[in-house]
Amino acid sequence: MQEARPWAFAAKLLLPGDKDTELYVALVFSGENLATLEHRLSVLDARAQPGKEPATNNTRFLLHRTGFYATVMQERDRIDPELETGEYGEPVPVDEIVYADVERSGRLSPAEVDIVNRLRRDFNAPEKILRLESDGAVIQAVPRPEQLSIREVTQRTRSLGGHYSNATLEAFHLNLTHNYDKHFVILRGISGTGKSRLAKCYAYAVLGADSLAENHDRFIVVAVEPQWTDPTFLLGHQDVLDPAGYRRTAFLDALLLAHSDPMQPVFVLLDEMNRAQVEHYFASLLSAMEIEGAIRFHSVGSETIPGVPPEIPWPKNLYLIGTVNDDESVLPFSGMVLDRANSQDLSYVDVKSFSEWLRETEPALAEVLTDQVVEYLAALGALLAPFQLHFGNRTVREIALYLLSAKKSGATIDALDYQIDQKILPKLRGGEECSRMLLDLIQLLDGRTLSQKRVMLMKSDLDQLDFFKYR
Which of the residue ranges 38-42, 201-205, 306-310 has the most confident prediction, judged by mean pLDDT? Predict the structure, then answer.
């Protein structure tokens, strides 16, 4: 494999009302593509007339919407943007495109962002944004998620402790990145299946973090509250006591961060987003996202409220992830919300696979997560799953911790029996459709005195009242 060789050119953009800005663009060729380019240049050299300088000294490179070309041109020649590229031969594929603006320390201007977006649409090549730090160091800016392969994202997510199937990770990556203009995914399912953790693991994987224990300014968690009735709970509002002040929110700061540096991703987790009626606090943002409109914060001038402009366009580098628990404690989504997002279900729980992962990552739990215990919990979950009454990975881990504590402390109770009664059965409720399930559950719990009595009481209530719940 030949060493990658960069071919670079600089484009100087004249911005109205601003100083000249230079965007440096390096095209990187390696392997077969580099060999193709070198062969093309050698052919051009062979065409040079005897006694003349090599043709490559007078080579013109053309970055056209159909590809990258090299040819010999005279000074009088002009490149017609609508030309037929056949006279230039076949295009040479580009392995990587590197951008840098040394004047702005890597923060590209809106005009430069437009150039990058145009090249991104035309060239299916990985890209990098380089930053020049104040100490002279050159570092690579964080890539957008869509620039990473599924394999790379999956490996990074798992290295951070994300235990999810390949199908789950691949679907989530595609759901969040398939649309160039908006990125909005709703993760739904029963409590404890790892919805919030998936969002954090994925975001940290893209951001290049080494550990979930670190805080990252490009991953913002916003916990939705039941009393949210309008957009100001997300966007903040002008201070009524101080006209020059503004009540800022974490979500507002995330929007402004994304707007200030549009080539780098910003992730926002709207945790339990349907604890309030989503349309009440999120409708204006959904509209801005859909029509690429403006997000309006206030109606006074920028100089009046420093740091908060009257409005900004919807940031295309903002990645929204909402989590939803499917139970009776939350409000339903309207079609308007679901139509604008990819809704991914994480309700499926593989108790055996997760338990095996726990044994590897927390070896102390292997002592209590025996094959017999795991099989028992898996059978219990399978019995409850058709009625959406099963339990998540969090419950499996907490039961294991309880069993370990009971063993170390020398407790004489049936710890698993107590955990089934305290962690799993309280969620059970339903009607006649659960009658067969309760009978099977009574049989499965044979020998678990506390839990079995509880389910017998539920079955008795169902027979008498046509309804049952934990009591």
Answer: 201-205
Extract the tokens encoding 14: 């004249």
Query: How many CB atoms are closer than 10 A to CB 253?
Result: 16
d(CA 442, CA 460): 12
Residue 56 has pLDDT above 50, yes or no: no
| Full DSSP string of 154-210 | HHHHHHTT----HHHHHHHHHHHHS-SS--EEEEEESTTSSHHHHHHHHHHHHHT-S
Phi then psi for 215, rounded to 5 degrees?
-85, 145
The mean per-residue pLDDT over the stretch 284-300 comes to 84
For 115-127, b/e burial (b = at least 16 CB within 10 A) is bbeebbeebebeb
- At residue 43 the predicted structure's pLDDT band, cuts being 50, 70 and 90, is low
Amino acid at 400: A
Length of the chain (residues): 471
Query: Residues 219, 269: contact at Cβ < 8 Å?
Result: yes
Q: What is the mean pLDDT of residues 196-218?
A: 92
Confidence band, pLDDT 50/70/90 cuts, at residue 262: confident
Partners of 246 in the β-ladder: 238
Q: Sort strands 468-469 and 127-132 into parallel, antiparallel or unpaired.
A: unpaired
Distance CA 274, CA 43 (A): 64
Report the 3 state secondary structure along 382-442.
Answer: HHHHHHCCCCCHHHHHHHHHHHHHHHHHCCCCCHHHHHHHHHHHHHCEECHHHHHHHHHHH
Segment 12-16 mean pLDDT: 49
For 42, the enclosing helix (H) or strand (E) is helix 31-46
Kindly state the average pLDDT of the residues 210-233.
Answer: 92
Asked if residue 245 lies in contact with residue 305, where contact means CB atoms within 8 angstroms, the answer is yes
